[in-house]
């Protein structure tokens, strides 16, 4: 089929397809195997870390028992390398029998019994990115039905081993096929990654109609460089990407790598803060069985999570890129609140950054700012009040800002806040606040 025929068919399909099953009004939260556990199928030499049912049961236990589920981390998502190399005699995908002896339906029950949801991975093409059986156009219906029959709640649909015309046909068809199963299944599309991530190649309004979320850009790796590269691409292209997001339709800058090997504590806070402001899926890929308390505290920061999950669902933007390598990100939130992230891209020492809310385009008024990672509250902030922040190299200061008269109500949002702060707010001179 030529590309023109494909386009025409797509126009037809998009008239009839809408994935409006009410899911993911806020970005999904959970855990996914890929970044940390990759395609480790060596269960003989690496039984603790290989892709098999025990790994997903372990992670479900941790999500259910260690305070994650209550915060909203609910999806346990299997990535590539779960499949047998061959389909079954009915043409259905099946799990590798030695690594998933109980089958996926049983694993789904285990996960559902703990109040969690199961995600799975498939690939629009002849093979998955790691060479396992793919979902060609003729297999879309049967695969959607198989996943629904197993009790799957989320599908990550990758795009290796296929061409742009097949993507253009396959992604909407899978949306329709998932809808037709009658089971509400969240649908994550990797389509944009394979066509450059930007308009005109990517039609974000169509994507928003057929997918709940989509990967726009390259895979995250376990390093600060990788996080910075992703952030830079998302910020550079925010005019195209930011308006595409909203309740039920999210850009996905990829997994949270907090708790692994590549990020310092400051960098981990930076990823959490920026992903919150970008309204990104909070899908961790780490080892929840061995997580240090620092990483846990960052990932379980209630206010960072609440900012990410704000019901208005507006994605934030980079407001400023200063010559001194400080960047300011901003996200409007419900109840006239907002989030600010001050990121230092410097590599020397804590940097003193001076600004005011007025300089950041805030209207005149009285505000309070809750420091998300220190738990301190800054009061008596007028839009014109100059403040000075100390931002660590590759670190952030993150503020939840709200109008002063709302302070009583917002208490409930951060009832966890510490009374005694290790940080001090003092007036350095009239009208100037130093936060050190
Ligand atoms: C692609 C995806 C990754 C992961 C791998 C699995 O690279 O972008 O997130 O799913 O495939 O092979």
SSE order and pairing:
Elements: H1 3-16, E1 29-32, H2 34-37, H3 53-65, H4 68-71, E2 75-77, H5 103-113, E3 117-123, H6 140-150, E4 154-158, H7 164-181, E5 186-189, H8 191-194, H9 204-210, E6 213-215, H10 224-236, H11 238-241, E7 250-252, H12 265-277, E8 282-284, H13 293-299, H14 302-308, E9 317-321, E10 326-332, E11 338-344, E12 351-355, E13 366-371, E14 377-382, E15 386-391, E16 396-403, H15 407-411, E17 425-429, E18 432-435
The structure holds alpha-D-galactopyranose.
Alpha-D-galactopyranose binds near residues 158 and 190.
List keywords for this structure.
8-stranded parallel sheet; disordered N terminus; globular; 15 helices; 21% strand; 18 strands; 436 residues; 6-stranded antiparallel sheet; alpha/beta; binds alpha-D-galactopyranose
